[in-house]
Amino acid sequence: MIEMKSVSKTFGKKKVLDNLYLTIDKGVYGLLGPNGIGKTTLIRSILGLYDIDDGEIIIDGKIMDSNKKNTGMIGYLPQQFGMFKELTTAEVLEYFSILKGICARDLKKEIVRCLSVVNLQHDRKTLVGALSGGMLRRLGIAQALLGDPKLLIFDEPTAGLDPEERMRFKDIIASISKDRTVIISTHIVQDVDVICNHILIMKSGSNIIQGTKEEIRSFAREKVYRILCGDQDKISGKRYIENIEEDGGTNYYKVLCSDRQKIGTVLSPTVEDGYMSIIKEV
Ligand SMILES: Nc1ncnc2c1ncn2[C@@H]1O[C@H](COP(=O)(O)OP(=O)(O)OP(=O)(O)O)[C@@H](O)[C@H]1O
């Protein structure tokens, strides 16, 4: 469990985290938010890679010590996971195992276990340079799993992956999430919808809205309309056009509306609609 109490973090004059409170329990959490809002800063603060200016971060009852990095007790997949191309996958994991302090006696077994979880057990001797982008990302996940940490943080794990690899990622998360806290920071709302059971929406450095998928959808209930393109000026109140779609030769807008409308058709909201409603304040 992670508890953040009154956490602040400033870069120069910019207060990125500002008196932030957050409690995260077991489960798979999707962390969403606009570019530059502070998701990476939040993650790096939890990992102890950034010293916070104020407040406390408590992980499993222990107050984080700013002099001690948490990367050993937390499995972390950074946005860019690259490794020496001339090492084999097993050698990469051996390297990380040593950094994590895994004892030599357990090392081989642990490497085989982690490679198997990500379906790379037959690629123990494959050079990193020969891996596809998806396989490299899976090796990154295997690295995060070494030592069996109860808290896993993945930063943009599905960016650039094809649909098959994204599905694999979803299956891996399902297989490892029991009794753990998994935080996935991403811009891909559809992935959060499929993979996560809790959603964290970072609206500002002081405000993270959290809820189940249903709770997030409910922010956009009775606010999502399908209207004919050209009818947007007939909308009363605040509006935000989410997308345009073609149906039978006619173009329609999907619009978030702050007021009830007399035009168009009301649609049931998706998690993405709920997210946009929160971020755009519609
Ligand atoms: N090391 C740093 N030094 C100075 N400013 C920083 C540093 N790290 C982040 N920032 C600033 O803090 C703000 C939040 O950045 P952060 O990377 O945490 O956002 P983010 O939500 O992860 O963004 P993205 O979704 O684009 O990855 C930005 O304005 C960024 O420029």
UniProtKB/TrEMBL annotation:
It comes from the Bacteria. GO terms for molecular function: ATP binding; ATP hydrolysis activity. Keywords: ATP-binding, Nucleotide-binding, Transport. InterPro entries: AAA+_ATPase (IPR003593), ABC_transporter-like_ATP-bd (IPR003439), ABC_transporter-like_CS (IPR017871), P-loop_NTPase (IPR027417). Residues 2-229 form the ABC transporter domain. Belongs to the ABC transporter superfamily. This is ATP-binding cassette domain-containing protein. It comes from Neobittarella massiliensis.
